[in-house]
Amino acid sequence: MVNESEFIARLQDPKSKENAFRELLQLYKERLYWHIRKIVLNHADADDVLQNTFIKIYRSIDKFKGESKLFSWMYRIATNESITLINKNAKRSQITNEEYQDRAINNLTADVYFEGDAIQLQLQKAIATLPEKQQLVFNMRYFDELKYKDIAEILETSEGALKASYHIAAKKIEAFLTAD
């Protein structure tokens, strides 16, 4: 990719916005899909959230001031859209977010797009037991291999708090996986 500020300028210029946005889609579609998928857990919901995320990015790109990296800003939108979907679906089903996540985990094996084995399923069950913020931090650090600095930008919190959250999450997951 070219210089980020030049790319953002192209995204914000009405003459080049369409082509620049197509490039943006190609660059980030898959990464954002898998980030969203780890939060919402099923393919259909992930597709919906991804579409909503890119619509929001397209509509809001003119307001992007460059105070964070473009990537971090998009991840923040994707994360918020994912959480919004979970909250909306849980409310519609009249259950808690935790109960909704439990159902999503239990439905993973029926999802034809889930490619994990028994170990991956156990890991997803362990992650689902974590509080929402620890889930997000663990997924972004462990699966997406993001730097704490980038996660801090996305979640708008300190690196120190994230490191503590990740450490606690890893310990809880380890305890879950070794309990029997």
From TrEMBL:
Occurrences of domain RNA polymerase sigma factor 70 region 4 type (ranges): 121-172
Ubl conjugation is among the record's keywords: no
Gene Ontology biological process: DNA-templated transcription initiation
SUPFAM superfamilies reported in the protein's UniProt record: Sigma2 domain of RNA polymerase sigma factors, Sigma3 and sigma4 domains of RNA polymerase sigma factors
Record GO terms (molecular function): DNA binding; sigma factor activity
Keyword Transcription annotated: yes
Domain RNA polymerase sigma-70 region stretches: 25-91
Pfam families: Sigma70_r2, Sigma70_r4_2
CDD domains from the UniProt entry: Sigma70_r4
Record keywords: Sigma factor, Transcription, Transcription regulation
Similarity field: Belongs to the sigma-70 factor family. ECF subfamily.
NCBIfam families associated with the record: sigma70-ECF
The protein, known as: RNA polymerase sigma-70 factor (ECF subfamily)
